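User:
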Amino acid sequence: MALVTYAPLGTEAPSAIQYMFDYQSVHNAKGAPTRIGDEIYHFPAWWTLLLFQWQLYGTFPILSLGAAVVIALLRPRPLELYLLAAILVPFLFLSFYISFKLHHYVYTWQAPVILLLALAAGKLTRRGITGGIFAILLLLAPFFYLGVDTVKTVSHTEPGNYSAVAEHLKATGHDRDTILVYSLGPVVKAYLPEARVINSSDRLLRRSAAQKEIDVVIVDSDVSERRPSPEIDRYLANNSDALSLTYTTDDKQIKSTYASPTGRTFSLGFSSSPS
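Assistant: Predicted structure:
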């Protein structure tokens, strides 16, 4: 069914589909950096997505989902068999065929697994009061608690590192400068749409460095360690004396670096030729 979506391309559809497979094959051979605990793996173990699933929901909701799968297997109807296949096929493909594991892959089967949970709850409620109690306690209560906890967590969420960096640049009048980003360039651009963001090792970086156009350098050590860029490393090495590394924390104190709870270190470097 996914391949049918290429139909509007007409005669170009086969080449587009072939490019998709070729690109994925190259990516599969190279792997992708994934942090598991304190380690980074390019080719994580097959059970990594199960770990991500557990981290997404927690222990009791995972047990509820497991119970829903067991209930569906006892007397499966066509719809439940379809949902089980919609869960199992992508899980096997992403766990055993794809060599790398990314956190968002688990969302591939979240819709069918939640629908399976709803069907299981419906089965239990049709068995009377006892079944209804089991449906509430076994299946629905953990997700109700999870929902309340999620709302509570979101309501206390502090601005992220990139957001704080962007606010600091706006406050200091650097939100429209030329910024060399050794981190997630699209995120910086989203927070600072009027800035000129450079995050590639092409002629644009070399020309901007030669003309002393770079006003700000943003470094995220977590990203820079996983995605080394010789061109940016060279620029930082040659201009380190001209950079004053600063960062503003929530209490508005300026510090040389800031280590976030996730282990990332953010630095702001202002060049010797500010706008």
